[in-house]
């Protein structure tokens, strides 16, 4: 990037000339304002479409090809904030010029809301805010919003072999979006969600002020821990409370095809997964795969992937007690430090250097996906499992992950944080439909498949409302178009699914901290007057 001749000088001259006239564009006014409200290094932080690096900067953190195709709407500019004043300036100047901002940390928003909008917008890109400052003595760390989960895990492990943090499995996910949407992973039965372990935060509010927990007050601090980013302010950093992990943990993967008794196992898993010891977490993944020799057709492969905070013999006796059908053997179990298990869970081969946690893709990802979610409160009966898998095989492109609740998840009150899905839930389903073809027709075909599958699942999942997990953002459950015109009835529909009774309190907080509704997107929290 340093070899590219800074376009800023050309632009600033242009802006200087234009600012003298009364009809400069909102972008020009924005850039002019930004230069006045930010530290001088702002010149190195701005990318407009004329800059040769514009697209590569835009796509450096886009994780869904559906929203990074050439036809997808592009921002007027990207501000890759280098210091706090750039964030403050972007907020103040976008607001005063009527430009929407989209805040991006890791770029994994499942509907691309952090880098696409249907109205003129600027991307505030937080990837330079990537530091993780670990203090083992107090058992805490400050993680900036652009730090990835891999960064967080890696830096903890540099300082300690017995500390960890409960967050997601995918190391490239950003702390900014992930934590503000709840954040779950395989430590959730033991320690709850990421938001259950956040003790402070720094945020830029709608007036450009920097607030911490004390100055923002408990209402706003409550709202940003699960109420979603992009509604209340820009998170600069989070203070997290580290959790204890045993020096060695045990992991395993057991796979079973449909023909080999997967149905009985999955049925039994539903009965016991939430009741297992808190130290044990067993996720079930459902994939469509090629059949075996005897049945050449596609079939379903079910994978049970486990994490136990402790040694394998102890785990084996726990599994043997409540889930003997799994047939778990000592040879299936691998003991390793917790940090290695984060790589194992993300499918890295054993022996992968821990540094791989810091990797980010060099190219924009070339596949598209649609994510949806459901909560299950009663075991799905065997005949329904059978029809469900039949439909998956027909679709070929849908996969599922089932994540058990129980343990700590059931002990925390549903109003403790905006994330309401606590006691009473057996497991969370993530549906993931992926495709590699470009274009609107392919997208529509796969979106239709995804929606049909979701429709099929209706009788087996939560209802009134049909609950959904915010981090698996799904615009189908209700969304505002255009995104600058928030309608309370529509907001109520997605709000009740993501937040249940907590939606009302989120609206109250929003009305107080951003009554003009500057921080908004298709699924943001509206203030009362809107
Ligand atoms: C491959 C993949 C794996 C995933 N695995 C998990 C998982 O294991 N567990 C889980 O809980 N979720 C998981 N998710 C969902 C993920 O947690 C959410 O998509 C999350 O919002 C991503 O955060 P981000 O910073 O990477 O995304 P971004 O796209 O940067 O941000 C998401 C949204 O958060 C808001 N936002 C971002 N940064 C800020 C900020 N600094 N201040 C204020 N608002 C901000 C914006 O509104 C933005 O639209 C996964 C998603 C993907 C694509
Ligand atoms: C929303 O944006 C569109 C397109 O830029 C614009 O025409 C419309 O006036 C805006 N509406 C509101 C309520 O700001
Ligand atoms: C394989 O698929 C075909 C076409 O869908 C079907 O007719 C046949 O019965 C299937 N065979 C088996 C063994 O399931
Ligand atoms: C599992 O439990 C059964 C009966 O309770 C016992 O006979 C068997 O030895 C146990 N196996 C393991 C691996 O602990
Ligand atoms: C954990 O990972 C490190 C780095 O790759 C490796 O040296 C070590 O052998 C691994 N430990 C285990 C038990 O897998
Ligand atoms: C999917 O497409 C079919 C055929 O075009 C249509 O009948 C069906 O309603 C669509 N389903 C969904 C959920 O959109």
UniProtKB/TrEMBL annotation:
Gene Ontology molecular function: FAD binding; oxidoreductase activity
Keywords: Disulfide bond, FAD, Flavoprotein, Glycoprotein, Signal
The UniProt record lists the keyword Ribosomal protein: no
Cofactor: FAD
One Pfam family linked to the record: FAD_binding_4
GO biological process, one term: cannabinoid biosynthetic process
Leader sequence segment: 1-24
Domain FAD-binding PCMH-type: 71-245
Family: Belongs to the oxygen-dependent FAD-linked oxidoreductase family.
The protein's name in its UniProt record: FAD-binding PCMH-type domain-containing protein
Source organism per UniProt: Glycine max (Soybean)
Upper lineage: Eukaryota, Viridiplantae, Streptophyta, Embryophyta, Tracheophyta
Gene name for this UniProt entry: LOC100807459
């Amino acid at each position: 990037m340093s070899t590219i001749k800074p376009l800023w000088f050309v632009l600033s001259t242009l802006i200087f000339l234009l600012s003298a006239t009364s009809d400069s564009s909102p972008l020009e006014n924005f850039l002019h304002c930004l230069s006045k409200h930010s530290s001088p290094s702002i010149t190195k932080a701005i990318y407009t479409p004329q800059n040769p690096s514009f697209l590569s900067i835009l796509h450096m953190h886009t994780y869904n090809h559906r929203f990074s195709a050439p036809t997808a709407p592009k921002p007027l500019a990207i501000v890759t904030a280098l210091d706090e004043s750039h964030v403050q300036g972007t907020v103040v100047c976008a607001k005063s010029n009527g430009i929407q901002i989209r805040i991006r940390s890791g770029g994994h928003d499942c509907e691309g809301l952090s880098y696409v909008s249907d109205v003129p917008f600027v991307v505030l890109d937080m990837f330079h805010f990537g530091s993780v400052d670990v203090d083992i003595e107090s058992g805490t760390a400050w993680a900036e919003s652009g730090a990835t989960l891999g960064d967080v895990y890696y830096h903890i492990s540099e300082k300690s072999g017995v500390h960890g943090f409960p967050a997601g499995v995918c190391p490239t996910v950003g702390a900014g979006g992930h934590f503000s949407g709840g954040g779950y992973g395989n430590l959730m039965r033991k320690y709850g969600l990421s938001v259950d372990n956040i003790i402070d935060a720094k945020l830029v509010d709608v007036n450009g002020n920097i607030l911490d927990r004390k100055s923002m007050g408990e209402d706003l601090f409550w709202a940003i821990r699960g109420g979603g980013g992009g509604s209340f302010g820009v998170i600069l950093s989070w203070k997290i409370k580290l959790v204890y992990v045993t020096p060695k943990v045990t992991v395993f993967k057991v796979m079973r095809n449909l023909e080999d008794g997967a149905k009985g196992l999955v049925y039994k898993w539903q009965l016991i997964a939430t009741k297992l010891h808190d130290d044990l977490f067993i996720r079930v993944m459902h994939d469509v795969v090629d059949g075996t020799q005897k049945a050449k057709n596609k079939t379903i492969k079910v994978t049970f992937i486990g994490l136990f905070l402790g040694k394998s013999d102890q785990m084996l006796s726990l599994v043997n007690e409540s889930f003997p059908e799994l047939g778990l053997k000592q040879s299936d179990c691998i003991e390793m430090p917790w940090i290695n298990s984060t790589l194992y869970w993300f499918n890295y081969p054993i022996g992968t250097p821990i540094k791989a946690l810091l990797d980010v893709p060099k190219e924009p990802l070339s596949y598209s996906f649609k994510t949806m979610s459901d909560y299950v409160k009663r075991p799905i009966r065997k005949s329904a499992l059978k029809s469900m898998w039949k439909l998956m095989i027909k679709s070929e492109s849908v996969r599922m992950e089932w994540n058990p609740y129980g343990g700590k998840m059931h002990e925390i009150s549903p109003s403790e944080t905006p994330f309401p899905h606590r006691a009473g839930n057996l497991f969370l389903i993530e549906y993931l439909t992926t495709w590699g073809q470009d274009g609107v027709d392919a997208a529509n075909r796969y979106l239709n498949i995804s929606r049909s599958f979701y429709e099929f699942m209706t009788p087996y999942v939560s209802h009134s409302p049909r609950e959904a997990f915010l981090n698996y953002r799904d615009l189908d459950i209700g969304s505002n178009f255009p995104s600058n015109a928030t309608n309370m009835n529509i907001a109520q529909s997605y709000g009740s699914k993501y937040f249940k009774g907590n939606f009302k309190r989120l609206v109250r907080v929003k009305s107080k901290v951003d009554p003009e509704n500057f921080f908004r997107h298709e699924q943001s929290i509206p203030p009362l007057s809107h």
